[in-house]
Structure formats: C-alpha cells, structure tokens
UniProtKB/TrEMBL annotation:
Protein location: Cell membrane
Name this polypeptide is given: Membrane protein
ABC3 transporter permease C-terminal domain span: 278-400
Record bears the keyword Membrane: yes
Pfam families: FtsX, MacB_PCD
Top-rank taxon, per record: Bacteria
Main location (coarse class): membrane
Transmembrane segments: 20-46, 274-301, 322-347, 367-390
C-alpha cells in the first residue's frame, strides 16, 4: 500500500471522536453527501421531466415529417406518393393541411391552428389515450367532425352535448374579391365537435383536428398539402427511412425526425440542465471550503507528525500526497454515501411515486424521474476534482512543517 495513502487513511479513521477536527471532518463528509444526493436527485427529476415533455410532443408529432423547403404548401403527384408508399419501412403516409383559421361558437370566437388530416390518421390511434371527452372521430359516413383541444373548448365554452350549435370556421378567400360585403370576403364552413383531447398547453389551446377534405375546401387548397406525416414500420430504423426519403424527394423537401421537429425545445432543455448542474457545482465549490478548513486545521495539528516523517526520510511530495489523499477520502466517502442515498430515493420515487405533483393530469400524478448513470459519474468526478483543488493549499502548507525544533 502507498505510504502516503496509508497515513491519510489512518488520519481519516482516527478514533479521537471528541476531537474538534474529527467533528469538522465528519461534517465535511456529511455536507458532501447531502450535496451529492441533492444534485443526482435534481438531475434525475429534470431528466424525467424532460423525457415526459418529449414523450408528450412525440405523441403529437409523427416519426417522420415531410415539409416543403420553400413556401408553406406543395403538390405531390401520384407517382411520387406511390414511391413513398413503396419505400421499405414506411407504414402509413398521412396527408396534412395545417393553417390558422378563425372559429366561432355561439358568441365566443378564437383563432386556432386547424389541422386537416387524411382518414388513415385516425387508424394510427396516436391520440386515443389523450381524448378526455367524446371520441377521436373525424368522419361518420358523409358527416364531418372536429376534435378540439381542451384549452380551445374552455375558451369557446363548448359543450359536446349541445347538438344545436356547430363550430363555424372562417378563412379569407383566395385571389381578389370585388365586394364590400364582409361575408363574401371569407369562406365559411360548419362542423360538429366530436371529442376533446388534452396533451400539453401548447397543443390544447391551439389545435383543432378536422378531416382533410374539410380543410382543403375551407382553404381552397385543392390537391395541395402543407406536410406529409409518416409512420415507420415497428422495429424498423427511423434513420434509414429518413435517409431513403431524403434521397427520393431531393432538395425541394425537408425530412424531419421527431427531435428535429422540436429541435429548439431540446436545445433549451439541454441548456437548462447545464445551468442546473452549474448552479450545483457552485454549491459544491462552496462546500469544498469546509474541506479546505478541515485539512488546514489537520495540517496544524499534525505538524509534529510531519516533522517526524521528514526525519524518517519522507519527501515534500509524499507529505503533500497525505493531505491530498485525506481530502479525496472525505470527498469519495461522502460522494459514495450521497450517490447511494440519491439512488435509493430515486428508486422509491420511480417505483412507488411517493412525491406527488399536486395536480391532476391525463398522464401522471407523481414527479417523473429518469436515472442516467452518466449523470452519476459526472457528479462524482466533478466533486472529486473540486475537492482535490481545495485540498492543494493545505497540502502545500503541510510541507512547510519540517523544522526539527517541532520535535523538541
């Protein structure tokens, strides 16, 4: 065993429980454990919240989305559509027309994002679990239906049980209209509401799903579309299908996977997580001052021991390593205790959902957590690195106690 490490471990395991320095050392270790535990818990809860938000967005967003590189709409010929359907890995291709529209219900009115989708969108059952009232139905025979977000329903004070008042959709007519009559400046269509969905505020207060033909007639789009949403065959690699689509469609279209569809949100989440870690790293740095104080006091208390070691032939580097190892032992022991306690709390939360969010949602009621082992490693390594830096000054100070008069 390394001599410096052996002496450091002896100091760390000192039986002088009543010693002030021993008490400070134990307090330092406890402080490190608490900070480590808090950091891994916060990062894991943040991972869980981030994953939950991504899952919510991914529920709404398709696995692959095709949009025009220029403009907001495009027209695909039937041959290209057949080629897309024929690609290996493509399961469902949904045609989409999405644009803002003015909606009126009785005396209430609101501007919404109208999303017209082809019939096979319903067959995917992507939003069935998100429907909180009614059903996700867009057509029944020749009759069209709309499915609206819970926020839109609240703004309009809409009731699905009231069949006398349909939703009225308005959209400006295309081209030049020679009339001063306001009613002739816009297209107007009516549709009955069939269901209400609840996903996340961004969607709940904006989106209304309607049949594709309804949206095409209101916007006078004809065969034009704003996007294609593609579902990949289960167990098929999405990146492979994405690359095949890019090769087929060329530069006139942009193919996006789910991460690329909300890249800005993912970038913000990563930035927030970084600043959370940075804030706790600062707390760890503050906690390291306790270790610096502990080792400085220890160096003063052990100055006679240090003089003896010099007499026995110890070098300055070996004396310095004793106190560096002492700091590392405090940090590593505290970190291990903190990591074990943090993991235990996270496991209990993940398994039993002990801490509730205090609000009702359609998906969960307890704080979500996600354990990422790289976070544990990052916390432990950062803690040890900061502690070694804090231990360096006391270690250098200890090398100065080489005066033989200390032995007298």
């Amino acid at each position: 065993m390394n001599t410096s490490f052996f002496i450091a471990s002896r100091y760390f395991k000192s039986k002088k429980k009543n010693s002030f320095i021993s008490m400070i050392s134990m307090f330092s270790m406890f402080e490190v454990a608490v900070v480590t535990m808090a950091l891994v818990i916060v990062l894991s809860v943040y991972n869980g919240m981030s994953e939950m938000i991504k899952d919510l967005y991914n529920t709404f967003d398709p696995e692959l989305k095709v949009v025009p590189a220029h403009g907001k709409s495009f027209e695909l010929d039937s041959l290209t559509m057949q080629q897309i359907h024929a690609l290996q890995g493509v399961s469902v291709v949904t045609e989409v027309i999405e644009d803002n529209a003015f909606v009126r219900y009785r005396n209430a009115q609101v501007v919404v994002t109208m999303k017209g989708v082809s019939d096979n969108y319903v067959d995917q059952h992507r939003l069935d679990s998100m429907v909180v009232e009614g059903s996700f139905k867009l057509q029944d025979g020749h009759k069209n239906y709309a499915v609206i977000g819970r926020g839109v329903r609240n703004v309009l004070s809409l009731s699905l049980k009231n069949d006398f008042y349909p939703l009225q959709f308005f959209y400006p007519k295309r081209g030049k209209v020679n009339s001063i009559d306001p009613t002739k400046l816009t297209n107007r269509l009516i549709i009955a509401p069939a269901g209400v969905f609840a996903i996340e505020r961004k969607f709940d207060y904006n989106y209304v799903f309607v049949p594709l033909n309804f949206a095409a007639n209101l916007l006078e789009y004809g065969k034009r579309r704003t996007a294609l949403e593609i579902q990949v065959v289960p167990k098929r690699a999405v990146p492979d299908v994405e690359q095949a689509l890019k090769k087929l469609l060329g530069k006139d279209f942009i193919v996006q996977n789910q991460d690329e569809q909300h890249a800005e949100m993912i970038r913000v989440l990563k930035l927030e997580k970084f600043f959370v870690f940075l804030a706790f790293a600062f707390i760890i740095a503050v906690a390291s001052f306790t270790i610096l104080f502990t080792l400085s006091m220890l160096a003063i208390e052990k100055k006679k021991d240090i003089a003896v070691l010099y007499t026995l032939g110890a070098t300055r580097d070996e004396i310095k390593k004793i106190f560096l190892f002492e700091g590392m032992l405090i940090a590593v022991t505290g970190a291990v205790i903190g990591l074990v306690l943090g993991y235990g709390i996270l496991y209990m939360q993940e398994t039993y959902g002990l801490i509730k969010m205090g609000m009702q949602t359609a998906i969960f009621d307890a704080y979500p957590v996600k354990i990422i082992w790289s976070d544990f490693f990052m916390v432990a390594s950062s803690l040890i690195g900061i502690t070694v830096l804090a231990s360096y000054r006391p270690a250098v100070m200890a090398t100065k106690y080489d005066d033989n008069r200390l032995l007298q």
